[in-house]
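My main concern about presentation is that the manuscript never shows what a single data entry looks like. In essence, backbone conformation is discretised, so a fold becomes a row of integers matching the chain in length. An entry of this sort, consisting of the sequence and the corresponding backbone structure tokens, reads as follows:
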Amino acid sequence: MSVVPALEHVQALAPYQPGKPIEELAREYGLDPASIIKLASNENPLGCSGRVREALGQAAGALQGRYPDANGFDLKEALAARYQVPQNWITLGNGSNDLLELASLALLDSRRSAVYSAHAFVVYRLATQARGARHIEVPTRHYGHDLPAMLQAVADDTRLLFIANPNNPTGTHVPAAEVDHFLETAWQRHGHGLTVLIDEAYNEYLEPGAQFDSTEWVRRYPNLIVTRTFSKAYGLAGLRVGYALAQPDLTDMLNRVRQPFNVNVLAQLAARVALDDTDFLIRTHALNHEGREQLQQGFAALGLDYVPSHTNFVLVRVGDAPRVHEHLLRQGVIVRPVAADGLPEHLRVTVGLAHENARLLEALGAALAA
């Protein structure tokens, strides 16, 4: 029995488990770190752009013992210009994960509930539980969000509804027309009583025909928060910077619970530079498109079912996932088990460079045959 007094819902929390670090695997199995490939955390295999690296190198030498701009004026100014919204519609976060937590802090407590989909980003569940709020988990439709069922599940005490679009870890995507209809119906039925949060962490990986400027929805619906991150396509996972777009009343609530100085000096600078490096984003998208096809064709050749992906990862069904995962680790290949997401027979594989994808497919074939 724990001797530390704690709230029951906090004691019941299962801490978030990140992808296994390369150094940890090297220690566990006596492997050369240089021989290990990590396809577990949906990072950009290109890293960040050269322009970002150059800007960071110049800025590092000029760092002083000063706090960052707590309001992130320069980054907000760049985002406001990009999306044509006022700065008081923008909240900065220590990655978009931070923004999900802020929304739960601002809107949930033990008297409230949150709605989210099964097989969706685990932080929705963790943030809800950390507030002591009631969980309403809605079954998926073909591994993706069933928006009509989610709206039907909204209860009198529901204050927050999470949508991941595209979804992690399944890679599914709900078309803009369906989301638009959902938002209109939710606003008509519940108004300000229900806040909808659309998590667009993987938006930049969508094919051009599937992309939609969700700022249009933010302008129309005062109950909407849209979150995005620089961790994925922009390659700034190590710096932790994201942002939320919402009308002023919701933005004000998020900033009331936001930690001061939550985005550091280098992260703010890197995000501003990355936002303008269109060439790098185009290169990232093209590399990901080719690599995703390489993985999906490889899984099909191995006779494995996979969920067609709209992101920089693919969810693949391997059967005895713990055994296959262990074999991959011993071969120096790190992928992500997703049993905690209710998918005990699947693994999530990040799209890597061409040679990394080939190595994964070879190692997977060996693991399946073992």
